[in-house]
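Our consortium's second objective concerns turning raw sequence data into structural hypotheses that experimental partners can test. To show how far this objective has progressed, the report includes one record in full. It was chosen at random from the queue rather than selected for favorable results. The single chain below, 198 residues long, was entered without modification.
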Amino acid sequence: MERRLGVMGGTFDPIHHGHLLTAEEAAVQFGLDEVVFVPTGQPWMKEERDVSSPEHRYLMTVIATASNPRFSVSRLEVDREGPTYTVDTLRELKDQHGGNVDLFFVTGADAVLEIFQWKDPDEILELAHFIAATRPGYDLARFEAEEPTRHSNVSVMNIPALAISSTDIRERVREGRPIRYLVPEGVESYIEKAGLYR
C-alpha cells in the first residue's frame, strides 16, 4: 500500500503554532501517515528580505516538531546548493520512497495563488496533491477563476488559527513584545538565545 506523505514546505522563520496546527489538521483530514517539514534553503521568492540562516530555521523546526511522533524534519533543501525549488524537492522525496508514496504538499493559500510563478508548475501539480490552508483575507475564488483547469489537484482546508504569521512574530521580537503562545516554548527560547530578529 502506498504511504501518504504530507510535505510541509516553508521558510519557517520562525515556525509557529499556525504551521503545526496546519500540519496536524492535514494529517487528520487527509489520512496522512507522516508529515515531513522541509525548511527552505535559499528561498528564491524571498530574496527581497533578510531570511535567517537555514541552520537556525532547521533547528527551530526540529524543536517545534519533536514531540509529535507523526512529524519529521528534512534537511533536503537546507543541504542543497543554490536556490530552493519545490519541484526538485518533490522529485527527491518520490525517489527516496521508491515512488511508493502519495505526496500531499501542504502550504498556505497565499502560496497556492503564486504557484504558477514557481519553476515547472505543471509538473509540481502532477507530483503532489496540494492542500491549501486558508487564513483570513485570502481569496481562493480568484485562484479558481484564473486557473480553472489546473486547480483540480488542490484541496482547500480551513484553519481558524492561521492569522498567526512569521512576519508578525519577527516584528514583535524586534519591538520587544511577547511571542509566548504564538510559537512553541522551545522555539521562543531558541530565538532568545540565538538573538534572532533583533
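The partners drew two points from this record. Residues 10 and 109 are 12 Å apart (CA to CA). The chain has a mean pLDDT of 88. Both points have been shared with the crystallography group to help prioritize constructs.
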